[in-house]
Amino acid sequence: MTKKSGLRATASAVVFALTASTAMADDVEVLHWWTSGGEAAAVGVLKDDLETKGVGWKDMPVAGGGGGDAMTVLRARVVAGDAPTAAQMLGFDIKDWASTTGKLGNLNAVAEKEGWDAVVPPALQEFSKHDGNWIAAPVNVHSTNWVWISKSALDAAGGKAPETWDELITVLDAMRANGITPLAHGGQAWQDATIFDAVVLGIGADFYKAAFIDMDEDALGGAQMVEAFDRMATLRTYVDDNFSGRDWNLASAMVIEGTAGMQMMGDWAKGEFLKAGQVPGEDFVCIRFPGTQGKVTFNSDQFVMFDQGGASEAQMAMAASVMNPTFQSAFNVVKGSVPARTDVSDAAFDDCGKKGMADFAEANAAGGLYGSMAHGHANPAAVKNAIYDVVTAHFNGEYDSATAAEELVNAVLAAQ
Fold first, then answer.
1. Residues near 139 by beta carbon (within 8 Å), at least 6 away in sequence
2. What span, in angstroms and rounded, lies between the C-alpha atoms of 144 and 198?
3. Could you tell me if 358 and 379 are in contact, meaning their C-beta atoms sit under 8 angstroms apart?
């Protein structure tokens, strides 16, 4: 056999093997809202991993960082009898779909085979299981109480990262005096609520739990909540006039480009900084929102599989890929989040990633881990959306702080 004919034979064998592999496993159509640069890169890690298993990826992205638009599209698909094979979901949305539709697939076979119970923290299993059955595969854990700061802007403002509320205001004032927008923000309800999450946690963890998890009326309408709204009003003064409707990744770009000093956003923002070639500690600084070190508000992106007359080979392959330790490291390094498994090494993570993993472990051990209100892990969607409405109305000047606290009580009671 000649060298050329040998190469042709080898190529033919490869094509045949790939074709056979593809034929053995169905494609997965995946609905998600990971559409920014950093998020798209993270999705690519999962797509590439599945391709090695002969599973094709049919992409169905729905823009909108909070996932609300994606859930609207998903409901329409399911009602029309055209559910995707898999969908990204968060927290109480998973619970709602499981309890009201009965359309989510059972992942027990792969979960039991690979020992998910032993490596997924109970706080995540609360959303991954329904009636004791695994119905979702958690791909990551995001924490929402982060601040991302331009290193050059911080140096120009004195160089010390703020640890308290008063120190935060001092830094923001210095940034404004230096001629840049102190706080990059996008005026969307979920972004307003993300900041509010951190502000409330910064006032006190017991207060956060009472207000957003227990939905205690005294906490929702009391003096501490008025103080939280006062702090939100103060932060509003550091935002530029063009913030309304701005996507979160465009706010990140303001910090990356040096036109703004900091952004208060979950750790998915780190993916934007990395995508832009920035290095933690050199180009940007990551800190917990002042007053929240040792405490973490979290959300977890999970993939549910829709029951299509029984679990398909492709669905099980995707669930296994999502939970593979090697993939969990590779994906979360790119995404900015931390692994959903407790047994993944932090060796591949940068300084912010290592801090995120250490903070999560510390909070989990000390009872300082709280589901994020802003991201659907503290209360059902109806309550979350009611809180959104009040927070955004106040942030846009429709209520003073005392009125906002009163309206918050009314809104939550009406939504329950």
1. 46, 300, 301, 302, 303, 322, 328, 331, 340
2. 7
3. no
- Amino acid found at 316: M
Residues 148, 286: contact at Cβ < 8 Å? yes
| Longest CA–CA separation in the chain, Å | 86
What distance in Å separates the CA atoms of residue 158 and residue 135, rounded to the nearest whole number? 49
Amino acid at position 25, single letter: A
Residues 363 and 347: their CA atoms lie apart, in Å, by: 20
Of 406, 413, 384, 392, the closest CA to residue 68 belongs to: 384
Residue (of 412, 387, 414, 409) closest to 199 by Cα position:
387
Rounded to whole angstroms, the Cα distance separating 81 from 172 reads 51
DSSP β-bridge partners for residue 60: 31
Q: What is the pLDDT of residues 137-191, one digit of tens each?
A: 999 999 999 999 999 999 999 999 999 999 999 999 999 999 999 999 999 999 9
Q: What angle do CA 389, 394, 396 make, to 5 degrees?
A: 95
Whole-model pTM: value is 0.85
Query: Cα(138)–Cα(327) distance, rounded to whole angstroms?
Result: 12
Among residues 90, 70, 74, 66, which one has the least CA distance to residue 388? 66
Cα–Cα distance measured from residue 182 to residue 287, given in angstroms and rounded to the nearest whole number: 16
Task: Give the single-character DSSP code of 328.
Answer: H
Sheet holding 57-61, edge to edge: 57-61, 28-32, 86-90, 301-305, 136-138
Q: Which of 225, 189, 246 is nearest to 381 (CA)?
A: 189
Round to whole Å and give the CA distance between 366 and 205.
12
